[in-house]
């Protein structure tokens, strides 16, 4: 297959590109670098509405991953606008361009996020669960998903990959947590009962490959492990894998004082998500449980594990 990818140089994009190429597929990066030396690269500038549409003709699929990083010490109005527009403008441009092609791709896989559900407490959230109508990240994801409408109207199979927290020592939440935990000053953030829906990088990429090959998948797909954990279990499991104590907990009030809206929206919401559509269509996780994933990515697989293990039961059997 010939597949174009936006955000190909990002965390998921890099892993996904390698996985697809290893499977014999041709990957064409959609990039803002006009001077790219990759002969297959497709140039675009979403803010200016520019894209090399002729290079999109005849593709089998497009995977859309690009978007402003949501993590920051605090959100300014400018940062929030970049988070929103980087998703909506790019997605609308891509969807409308694909819809107008003479030979459009059959499939568009578009990144989304579990933030669309808002704070669900301890409720198990599936793809059929109501989405939140309040909160900034829910607003972003709602508009992000709606921005693919032109492609869907043109008969393109559109899948919204609602991704959980990707755990990799290379970037994101785990990278930020590791220094404190390695020094023995790690601990949970917020309530011990707050649910944390995660996925390993290999499964984040693998979920996209599965969605690409599974034609019955349309609309929302929760891209998470089938075994979410509480914040207490996250901290104790990471400490156990690293053989470090986890006594230095950070109360929610402290996080709010330091980070404001970022804390409430991105760190302190309880989101217990079930990947029902992946389970129904037979996806097999490489790392379905947190302890195994952490031991794998932190190079502890050959060491005896003497710490805590996942206590959460699978949300689906």
Describe this structure in words.
The protein is an alpha/beta fold. It has helices at residues 11-22, 77-99, 136-146, 149-153, 172-182, 201-213, 231-242, 252-259, 261-267, 276-280, 290-297; strands at 2-6, 26-31, 42-45, 50-51, 61-64, 107-113, 124-125, 157-163, 165-167, 195-196, 198-200, 219-223, 229-230, 272-273. The protein is globular, with a radius of gyration of 20 Å. The two termini are 33 Å apart. Mean pLDDT is 91; it is low at 304-317.
Number of beta strands = 14
| Estimated radius of gyration | 20 Å
User: Biggest sheet: strands side by side, in what order?
Assistant: 4-3-2-1-5-6-8-12
Structural class: alpha/beta
pLDDT below 50 for ≥5 consecutive residues: which ranges? 304-317
Shape label: globular
Helix content: 25-40%
β-strand percent reads 15-25%
Query: Could you describe the largest sheet, including whether it forms a barrel?
Result: 8 strands, mixed
Order of helices and strands: EHEEEEHEEHHEEHEEHEEHHHEHH
Q: Determine the mean pLDDT.
A: 91
Enumerate how many helices there are, as a single number.
11
Characterize this entry briefly.
It contains eleven helices and 14 strands.
């Amino acid at each position: 297959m010939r597949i174009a990818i936006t955000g190909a140089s990002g965390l998921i994009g890099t892993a996904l590109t390698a996985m697809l190429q290893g499977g014999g597929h041709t990957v064409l990066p959609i990039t803002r670098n006009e001077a790219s030396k990759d002969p297959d690269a497709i140039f675009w500038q979403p803010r200016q509405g520019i894209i090399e549409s002729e290079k999109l003709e005849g593709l089998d699929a497009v995977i859309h991953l690009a978007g402003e990083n949501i993590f920051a010490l605090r959100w300014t109005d400018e940062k929030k606008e970049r988070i929103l527009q980087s998703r909506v403008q790019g997605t609308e441009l891509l969807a409308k361009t694909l819809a107008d092609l003479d030979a459009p791709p059959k499939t568009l896989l578009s990144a989304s996020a579990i933030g669309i559900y808002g704070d669900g407490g301890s409720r198990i959230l599936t793809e059929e669960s109501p989405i939140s109508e309040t909160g900034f990240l829910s607003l972003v994801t709602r508009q992000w998903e709606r921005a693919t409408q032109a492609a869907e109207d043109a008969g393109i199979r559109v899948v919204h990959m609602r991704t959980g927290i990707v755990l990799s020592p290379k970037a994101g939440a785990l990278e930020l947590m590791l220094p404190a935990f390695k020094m023995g000053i790690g601990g949970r953030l917020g309530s011990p009962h707050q649910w944390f829906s995660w996925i390993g990088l290999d499964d984040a990429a693998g979920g996209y490959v599965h969605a690409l090959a599974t034609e019955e998948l349309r609309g929302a797909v929760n891209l998470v492990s089938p075994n979410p954990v509480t914040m207490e279990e996250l901290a104790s499991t990471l400490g156990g894998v690293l053989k470090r104590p986890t006594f230095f907990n950070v109360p929610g009030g402290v996080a709010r004082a330091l980070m404001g809206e970022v804390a409430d929206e991105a760190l302190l919401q309880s989101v217990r998500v079930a990947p029902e559509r992946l389970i129904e269509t037979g996806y097999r996780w490489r790392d379905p449980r947190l302890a195994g994933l952490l031991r794998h990515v932190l190079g502890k697989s050959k060491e005896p594990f003497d710490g805590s293990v996942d206590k959460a039961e699978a949300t689906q059997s």
